[in-house]
Amino acid sequence: MAAEIYERDGIKYEIHVQARSGQFSARWTCPSCQKSGGLTRWYHFEKEAIDRNKVSAFIEHHTVFHRVSRRAAS
Questions:
Q1: In the chain, which residues have pLDDT < 50?
Q2: pLDDT one-digit tens code per residue, 55-71
Q3: Cα three-residue angle 15-60-1, rounded to 5 degrees
Q4: Is residue 13 within 8 Å of 29, Cβ to Cβ?
Q5: How far is CA 53 from CA 9, 45, 63, 69, 74, in A?
Q6: Every domain of the chain and the residues it spans
Q7: CB neighbours of 22 closer than 8 A, spacing ≥ 6?
Q8: Residues 29/16, Cβ–Cβ less than 8 Å
Q9: Cα 14–47–67 angle (5° rounding)?
Q10: What is the DSSP string of the chain?
Q11: What is the pTM of this model?
């Protein structure tokens, strides 16, 4: 399983990619709080699976748990 790092506001998310029958799926993991998630769909292109999970990590997790925390601390 391949992995890619996606960094947002100093937090490095790990995007793990799986391949099956010529298609790709990915999931993200936040090492800061040990949460994971993302889209479980299969895509024709590895880049699409990675890019969609970067968006998922940002919208579903980062803006809710990390970005809000930073604003409250400011």
A1: none
A2: 999 999 999 888 765 55
A3: 15
A4: yes
A5: 17, 13, 14, 22, 28
A6: 2-73
A7: 44
A8: yes
A9: 40
A10: -EEEEEEETTEEEEEEEEEETTEEEEEEEETTTTEEE-----BSSHHHHHHHHHHHIIIIIIIIIIIHHHHHH-
A11: 0.82
From residue 37, give the alpha-carbon distance in Å to each of 24, 54, 68. Answer: 16, 11, 19
pLDDT, residue 68, reads: 61
Strand ranges across the sheet with 35-37: 2-8, 11-20, 23-30, 35-37
- Is the Cβ–Cβ distance between 36 and 29 less than 8 Å? yes
pLDDT attached to residue 41: 94
